[in-house]
Amino acid sequence: MAPHWYCLFLGVMLTQGLLALSPIPVPEEEWIEFSRMLRDPQYRLPRTSVPQKYQVTLTPYLDIASTPTVSPFTFDGAVTIELTVLEATNEIVLHCNDLIIHELTLTTATGVAVGLESNTFVCEMPYSFLRVRASSQLSANTQYILKSRFSGNLQTNMRGFYRSWYKDSNGQKRWLGSTQFQPGHARQAFPCYDEPSFKALFDITIIRDSTLQPTVSNMPIKVTTNVSGRISETFHTTPKTSTYLLGFIVSDFEIVATNKNVTHPFYIYARTTANETGNFALEMGIKLLDIMTEYTKIPYYDMAPNIDMKQAAIPDFSAGAMENWGMLTYREAFLLYDEDNSNHWYKQRIANVIGHEVAHQWFGNLVTCSWWDNLWLNEAFGRFYQYYLAEMGAPEMGFNTRFIVEQLRVSMLSDSVDSAHALTNPDVNDPASVSAHFSTITYARGASMLRMTQYLLGDETFVKGLRKFLEARKFDVADPNHLFSALDEAAREDGALANYDGVTVESYFRTWSERAGHPLLTVTVNQTSGQVRINQARWERDTGKSQYSQIWQIPVTWTRANASDFDDLKPSLMITEAAASFDRGSTGPEWILLNKQQTSFYRVNYDHNNWILLTRALRSNSRTAIHEFNRAQLVDDLFNFARAGLHTYNTVFNILSFLEFEDQYTPWISAITGFNFARSRLAYDSANLQKLDNLILSLSKAIVARLGYVEKPGEPFLDGLLRTSVMNFLCNIGDEQCLSTAKTTFEQWRNGGRIYPNMRPWVYCNGLRQGTAEDFTFFWNKYLNEQLATEVVVMLTAAGCTKDTTGLETFLSAIINAEEIIRPQDVSTALSSAVTSNEENTMKVFNWLKRNLVQVNSALGSASTFISNIGGRLRNEAQITEFQNWLDENRVTLGAAYTTGVNSIASTRSNMAWSAKRLSEFTTYFDKGYVEEELDLDEAEEGEEGDPEEDTGDDASIAALSTVLLLITVSINMYV
């Protein structure tokens, strides 16, 4: 289907997005190629004319046998565009790409022909322009009609109007045609004004083969007729919409679930073998659509006459999902759920994804960002509401809890380098800066900004402002000013910002949306007087301090030990300067803690005494008096402070010793992330890595005691989800009971037993790690016969865990197999599994690559991803030398992948240097363990006007490495 190189590229980008558990289209991948258009005026359409209405007719050829005279996987088309010329001009410019224009005419609205300079029309690349030049000037403010006949190709890269396939119950390959038009691929289906601001009405007609099921599109079918043995289906007129939100599916898909509601119809479409796996998506979809209707006070079913709601599972899909108005499309794994075989992660994922796409029907479809440089107006709302809606629809899944670790924390990491981009950046002009503009920051950081604003204004005011925004801009486009104006109007009406000295939503939000990065608040407490001083400065993750100086308007909440209140989340002060102070309201030793429930987007570092007081509290029986989210915040902040050298690892481990008593979700998810980074840095020193693993095992006793190793019937949803993460982690570091449980359960499965879905990720992996060649063969045969997409991905993720060389090479060969044993959309998942699932597999994969380099280049287009993964996992000088020599010998064949390999070696050397420089911090704690520290109140009073004490030993600073580490950010991210 799709070229493997392209799908691998998409998959790598998707994997990066999955670090943030992005459920969505993680469109970072598609924006890269498209990004050159974003700010370069040469790629933008002139606004001398605008469309009002399209009539689009397409005839796709999927059944090759029934159309022998037609080239397979092509389509014929015709379009009529009613347009208005706004300014006098002799040229109409619109988009087309990979289309052959057979005929084109231009007339006035009354049917008078307009003379054209030429009868030959081509799609002008690289701009994708279709220029229609008139012989005389076209009149301003006048209606014209453009008609065209054309033909095109069903794409193979999961963009535009493309082809996909699946196997039916008889093993027969069935072809289908589907669409993915965001951000600018509608032009591959028909000539159009393919930018979001050119909204119009659409009448779509599909003429399909009679052997297929009725076509699915944005609107329901209005008229069905026979046309020369084929079936013509014309759909009801769409709402006024952007081209990227159009969609259609030509297939033999069936309705696998429906609410059978005549006035509010809702359907789930999928392949014929999907059975009842659409039921959960139907249940969640109906619930979330109703919640969003009530929330916005704009009923979905009133958005257009005859509108319905359809969700479809596509076998090959580059994004996670797509919000086509009225016809949401998804990867199968993100829509089809099997109660007996899909795990908790996919259950919450499906609810999460549906929430995102449902939210887009309002934020994105009804009101659309005016141009992609303000994409966050679409995607930040989608990301925010995928948690907010799902929490209301399925509170047992803990979406509010998971937003913090899955979105806020991950986006803070991406946002903490000096090269990070702002949400809205008016200075984005060159292709490189625009490419970077579409990222986790746009989605997850944007969502975190909305969450922070919700708590600042209060939920009622926030909702009121959003309703004003939607009502004012419906069926139109918007920019950030429209949002700020609506929220400020609501804030004035409710007095929501009255206590913040003239701060407005606009002034506050612009400090966050038009500036990259986020602050570190450095807090100094005079424990005698109770005076608290706060300094803000931009945080940088490798050195602790950015090279850029900037000030945010920061909403601050705080509480203290003897009057703790973690529930009042309305900010008590707004910091607008570099420094601020307030009175704690008490005297004597007492901890203070900022950012209750981590509602705001910043890190907090305290002075030495306050850390001692927090450590004592965390290790005491009153540990849970500190909110779970804040215990997790402390864990995450401390690991990041250690990474940057702001505190030594022995100091941080001393505070984090409280984990031996901790057994809740968010602290442990944060701890696993932090420990994994530390483990990656000790990977070159097996003896000390083992000591770190032993430390982790000792700290995990409480969480293991509460969860156990085996799923418990009726347990809380989050416990099942957490156990999967904890067991994956503990098995990786050698927990004996985890490994024993995995081995026994895997053997029972081979003998006809069943593995609980939530246990499969770690049982499959560690069963294979401890297994034989026969174990892998059994497992692989199961994979080859598996059709449930959620299970397919779980198995691919585990397949690389085998230590059997023959089995590993079978897996690697499948990745580049032309028969698509592994679907293109899953290639990157498989490749990552093969290279990174076992330490000893790195060199095995390298040896296989040396023998199969030509085949890898042919199948994937490049060996870059293989090489990057291998180079980043070399553990000693001998391996580095062998790898470098091979790179040099094959430089011509490798092409650009050679540079990738050299850079990966540089990354590995930098990591080794970091490890050597910081190692003594680890060994200090390994030798001494937890040390009870004493307060030094005299020192605190003397240092009141200074910054909090930092660890300043030789091992604490890595400033000398900062430049190199900045260059290897991507590699670091892969470990984190």
UniProtKB/TrEMBL annotation:
Zn(2+) binds at residues 356, 360, 379. Residues 591-894 form the ERAP1-like C-terminal domain. It is found in: Cell membrane. It comes from Pieris brassicae (White butterfly). PANTHER family: AMINOPEPTIDASE, PROTEASE M1 ZINC METALLOPROTEASE. This is Aminopeptidase. Pfam families: ERAP1_C (PF11838), Peptidase_M1 (PF01433), Peptidase_M1_N (PF17900). Belongs to the peptidase M1 family. Residues 280-492 form the Peptidase M1 membrane alanine aminopeptidase domain. Its cofactor is Zn(2+). GO terms for biological process: peptide catabolic process; proteolysis. The active site is at residue 357. It catalyses: Release of an N-terminal amino acid, Xaa-|-Yaa- from a peptide, amide or arylamide. Xaa is preferably Ala, but may be most amino acids including Pro (slow action). When a terminal hydrophobic residue is followed by a prolyl residue, the two may be released as an intact Xaa-Pro dipeptide. Binds 1 zinc ion per subunit. GO terms for molecular function: alanyl aminopeptidase activity; metalloaminopeptidase activity; peptide binding; zinc ion binding. It is a lipid-anchor; GPI-anchor.
